[in-house]
C-alpha cells in the first residue's frame, strides 16, 4: 500500500519549476526504462532490472536512488525480508506519459520494436486520443494556447543537466523511444520543444527563449529538421522554422508531462504554465481516450501486448 497516496513535493520559490523538474525525470532513457519495467513487468528487485536489460550496476543504483528521492519509487522489505522498490502513486501516474510516447513512436518512427496496447474494456488494440478534461473533445496542439504562469519563465523551466544523457548506442534500453529522447533527452532540446510549441519560429526567438549559445541552437534546429519534427523555409539567410505534422503530433507527450509535473511538483508562486483549450475556453487538462471505443483510459485498463503475449496493465 502506498503510504503517501497524495503527497506533492513543494519546490523552492524562484527555483526550477514543475516543468523543469518533471522533464528532468522523464528525459532520461534509463529512468523511463526502470519505471516502464516496474509498471508493465512488475519488477521490484535490483537483480531483476539487471537481468532485464543492458544496464550497469552503477547506472541502476544512481537511477533507483534518484527515483526514490523524487518519490516515484519507494523502497522497503518484501515478505521474504529482501529490499525491493515499488511504484508510488506518483510513479503509477506516469502511465499517460509512457503511453503517449509509445503511440508517437509507433506512428512516426518505423522499425522500433514497441509493444502494442490493448484496452481491456473493449478488447481492441488501440492508439490513444488526447482530449480536454473539461469538455471531453479530442484535442490537438492547435486547439491549445499556452502562457507562462506565476512560476514560469524560460530560465526556470529548463531542466538541469544532471543525469540527462542518452544511453550509448551499444547499451540502450529495450522498448523505449529513441526519437522521443532526441526531443526531450537533453536540456536544450527540451527547451527548443517548448519554444516551438509556444510559437517561436526564427533563430533569434529560439536563441532568446532557450538562453543557449548560438552553436547549440543551430545544432538542435538541424537535428529537429533531420528527424522531421521541424521544417525550415528554403532561404538559408533567415529561415523560418515550423512544426511539421510529426512535430505537432508530439503534443500529447508534452501535455502529459506538464500535467504530471504540475500535479506532483508545486512551486509556492503557482503553476509554471497555463494552458487553455480554445474550444471550450477553460483550462486545459489532458486526458486520454481509447481510439477504438472512445472511453476514457485508466492505467489499469491498458494491457501491454507483445505478439500473442499480454502483460500487466500500464498502471
UniProtKB/TrEMBL annotation:
Span of domain HTH hxlR-type: 15-113, 172-269
Keywords, A to Z, come to: DNA-binding, Transcription, Transcription regulation
- InterPro entries for this protein: HTH_HxlR, WH-like_DNA-bd_sf, WH_DNA-bd_sf
In terms of superkingdom, the source organism counts as Bacteria
Write down the Pfam families for this protein, in alphabetical order. Answer: HxlR (PF01638)
Q: Which PROSITE patterns match?
A: HTH_HXLR
* One function term, GO molecular function aspect: DNA binding
Q: Which SUPFAM superfamilies match?
A: Winged helix' DNA-binding domain (SSF46785)
Tell me which Gene3D superfamilies the record gives.
Winged helix-like DNA-binding domain superfamily/Winged helix DNA-binding domain
* PANTHER family with a match to the protein in the record: TRANSCRIPTIONAL REGULATOR, MARR FAMILY, TRANSCRIPTIONAL REGULATORY PROTEIN
Q: What is this protein called?
A: Helix-turn-helix transcriptional regulator
